[in-house]
Amino acid sequence: ASANIGVVGLAVMGSNLARNLASREGNTVAIFNRSYEKTETLVSEHPEAGFIPAQTYREFADSLQKPRTAIIMVKAGGPTDAVIDSLVEVFEPGDIIVDGGNAYFPDTIRREKAVRETGINFVGAGISGGEEGALTGPSIMPGGSDESWITLGPILKSIAAIAEGEPCVTHVGHDGAGHFVKMVHNGIEYADMQLIAEAYDLIRRGTGKSPAEIAEIFAEWNKGELESYLIEITAEVLRQVDAETGKPLVDVILDQAGAKGTGAWTVQTALSLGVPVSGIAEATFARSLSSHPEQREVARALPGPDEEFVVTDEAAFIEDVRLALYASKIVAYSQGFDEIRAGAAEYGWNIDLGAISKIWRGGCIIRAQFLNRIADAYAENPELPVLMTAPYFAEALTRGQASWRRVVVTAAQAGIPAPAFSSSLSYYDGIRADRLPAALVQGQRDFFGAHTYKRIDKPGTFHTQWSGDRTEIEAEDTH
Ligand code: NBP
């Protein structure tokens, strides 16, 4: 046994991760893939990696030093379960199985529990950064036991992205905590992408600028507080010209956005936790809306505003959009971190929110300058109840709110959909409101369902006898 780490599953992600591992001092990497051709190809294409190939799970286990540590990178769902079952057969108590795929966190909780019974450690680790990140340094979000972290920590630190001298990996929490945090990362990614797309659409339709010209605006924005990987690649995509037609590529791509489900998981989980992640939800729904051409075809007949959309002061409008984008982005992250906190409370994970923002500074898709500010906010107050109320963000919202409102009004008047911009603003106004019409909703609930209400002026639970003489009585709490 000469390998300190193994990789199972050698499609794009697994082979890049295996190469990344092999390139780091001190690692010897055993590899296994269900069909052996992929293993052979990887070995022959990368002799420098010194891979130890295995044809069977038994051979794979024998090539690993104890405690054996293997990272699974196969299709999420059934294939992951199949590989876990095979590894459990050949591994021993104390060994470590890591699932680096995009598992749904309840699956990870279930698997961890089942594998733990055999004495083997199971770690669900979210890995972000796509193919490129897997090869050069991803952001890694591992869950699992403290025991497994002792062996796994140094290995994962050796391959993770480095941000400001620190590796982008931390032991997130037990069992499914890592995959939970990765899920929310992806949800925030959906919101961030949708917000950028809305900004682009408003600028394009408001100013008539070409995609290439708008690319320059994004490139400029990328030098300031919006600096992030997603803004950077947006400029690249907008600059791209289609070789076949000579048109901007963005104009020949079908306007239907796909999704692999992590955005939907984030929203479904938030719904069951009772956390309003409205920006993420709108971003997820915006993709669904785009992907129903049959509905869009018939709905095209519905009227829009009568007046033409004209922007008189282009520079001022573009600056308004920039500030609206930044404010909405703050809301999206604030909501995402809320979901992580609620998930941690629900599932009993001790998650350090500041540490999460730090490991997202490099390697992952939502990497951004701005994550340093989130880390600062949680360093100052780990119990911060609403991230966007931290001084730095509150200042940005104060500075941007007038622009944000103008952009949302403009979008509504111009008939341009801006669901993430407008829902973020509504969330902002909702959470900061002195009083909400929830009082009326509770009154309605009491009317038709005797769901009771509480009063602002005295303790207790009350019900108005709506179908009787409408006097109020003290009631059992049925909120
Ligand atoms: P795929 O998700 O396309 O899976 C292909 C791999 O799964 C192959 O190695 C295949 O083996 C193996 N496999 C299957 Br399918 N069924 C199997 C079974 N029953 N037993 C054993 N192996 C089986 O690979 P990928 O695109 O490299 O992604 C790997 C994981 O990483 C996925 O969970 C994915 O969601 C995640 N991912 C993450 C990112 C990211 O940015 N973090 C990006 C892309 C993917 P074969 O060669 O024998 O068919």
From TrEMBL:
It comes from the Bacteria. Catalyzes the oxidative decarboxylation of 6-phosphogluconate to ribulose 5-phosphate and CO(2), with concomitant reduction of NADP to NADPH. Pathway: Carbohydrate degradation; pentose phosphate pathway; D-ribulose 5-phosphate from D-glucose 6-phosphate (oxidative stage): step 3/3. Homodimer. The keyword Manganese does not apply. Belongs to the 6-phosphogluconate dehydrogenase family. This is 6-phosphogluconate dehydrogenase, decarboxylating. Residues 178-467 form the 6-phosphogluconate dehydrogenase C-terminal domain.
